[in-house]
What does this fold into?
Amino acid sequence: MKRLFLFVAICLLVVNLFAQDICISTPGTSLVLSAPIGGDLTHVYYGNKLTDAEVRVIAQIEPNNRSAYPVYGLGGFGERALSVKHADGNMTLQMTVTGVKSNKEGNANITIIEMKDKVYPFYVNICYKAYQDVDIIETWTEISHQEKKPVVLEQFASAYLPIRRGDVWLSHLYGSWANEGRLAQEPLAPGMKIIKNKDGVRNSHTAHAEVMFSLDGKPQENTGSVIGAALCYSGNYKLRIDTDDTDYHHFFAGINEDNSSYSLAKGEVFRTPELALTYSKEGLSGGSRNFHKWGRTYKLAHGNTLRKILLNSWEGVYFDINEEGMNQMMNDIASMGGELFVMDDGWFGDKYPRNVDNSSLGDWVVDKRKLPNGVAGLVKDAEKHGIKFGIWIEPEMANTTSELFEKHPEWALKAPQRDHVLGRGGTQVVLDLANPEVQDFIFDIVDNLMTDNPEIDYIKWDANMSITNHGSNYLPKDKQSHLFIEFHRGFEKVCQRIRAKYPDLTIQACASGGGRANYGVLPYFDEFWVSDNTDALQRVYMQWGTSYFFPAIATASHISATPNHQTFRTIPLKYRIDVAMSGRLGMEIQPKNMTEEEIILCKNAIAEYKTIRPVVQLGDIYRLLSPYDKLGVASMMYVSPEKEKAVFYWWKMEHFCDQHLPRVKMAGLSPAKQYIVRELNRIDNSPLKFEGKIFSGEYLMSNGLEIPYTHTVDYHKLNDYSSRVLYLEEVK
Ligand code: GLA
It folds into this structure.
């Protein structure tokens, strides 16, 4: 008996010696893994921050049989993160831990768990980057081998996470052109949920590569535990949530492997895109705040620099570009207090002028018939008006009617033996970004523009076509399945070169509207165009969804004309302003068609926005009442980090007589602080009852303020819309 006891004790000691529990932490979260050398890497815990003592206990009591990165071939039949075919035909992997490395990178701790197959010289590093000032852990893998011949990667997720079953709900975004960023929320049920994109270019149309899991039942904005995940990739992706016969939902995220099997050469390292994970106890809005802080600090270009208020020419003049018209628009936005003018599509093309959407992409030379003094002339005009100048390009594309296509038809993606499947205007094609010559060409578009006109402050980078022709003239025959991946590698290389040379340039990611709202592109871009749909009512839904993952500073939101050009809905200017002011404010309108009264309203709104801009663009979001709940009103707010300022938005979503709308309680304020309330963009004849009054944060968060359902305006100005923006400032 005594001997047996001694034997067990020695065994335990040995196990302990080799067992390595790894705790990866951020200020408020912990991820615990078990990584015994020579053993399996298993997932133990992800959630609220643990103490060292808790980590030790939890590592002993939590189930220890959930692989942290399941591979295919041996044991079990569930979904897998990685599946390969070795050159000898073997379809299996068996990975064991060979080492754990850690280091520091800026404000983050990096942990790399090295694994090797038991038999084959096949290696996977599971990498974690844990930020020490925001609650985000990025995770990705590095896959390589030293086998004699290439190994084919069939499935290659960035990460896997088991999520304990219970009453778990998924929140995710879907939509398409003119209806991007729509929120869908559903309980996770048995079976497989797949969220994916296969566009090839624009990966946030159809669906988004970010999700949130509400762990405590039906999603709540400001309470309950939430896990959020955002795949930082600009190309095709697939998120899988498999709910099988175990206690877990199995969540996988990575590049979409469909039509993309990858032949990995000896010594080559395949790095999967990062999956950013967050955990919050403060509901969905808490998850969003974590993503926004990380996004601003570490992901998007110039994430902590306030954005300029701009006028974009598109909905104002469309392709009707000329010097006089541009000058007039610049003058108008400058006199309203704007800071930047962006000339959209229609300014280029020599042999083929760009008058409609069926020609000239690729010919990035100024159309001198429209702009005799070139871009330089416009830049000078902008300077004269005291504003900055920006310009539209769509550099990854060409039209078959273009000098570029005549010279380099081989640069367009096309399947051998097949005719082109053409895009916009019946003539658009996508350039082969896998080809380094094409990469140079695209870099030169920006470089030439900037060299000739160093004053250009802003570029709107558009992309209006999917990869509808699977074929690259550049890639060898046996690597055609690399096309989607190589396209995005090429895109990223170009972006890196542009950013290295032009670090201060502001660049907007537009892709037929909101087709490129993702954290794969944002490191190179300052913002994205949420949607070509500028209808304020529909924007409430789209911007609400978008705010789950992306901060207001990146969310371009413009005041446009009425009736709206996409929905033909007539919405009063006050409402259009109040919605646009909840994002990165801009205008997309012909100012010369506005009345004097409208100009004054916009001028005033721009001045007010300048006051609240730091709170909106750098503050913390608290969503209060969702438009998707159909309660007749939607409401949200931003609070400054020190909680001494806040902006509250209230948008009525529908109008009926005898309505009984909920009174909205505020959130995120300091209970003890006293706030003075002031209405912005006021159109009412008399101020609100609480105008200029002082309330404690406690009162505002427990009771909210009674917002009148309609505006007190003259009879002929009454309409069915109603909205309010309140500015709260601490009174000491
Ligand atoms: C796309 C963009 C629009 C506009 C046009 C120009 O549709 O989303 O904002 O720039 O292209 O052709």
Q: What stands out?
A: Residues 314, 344-345, 357, 392, 462, 464, 510, 512-513, 529, 532 surround alpha-D-galactopyranose (CB under 6 Å). Residues 596-618 form the longest helix (23 residues).
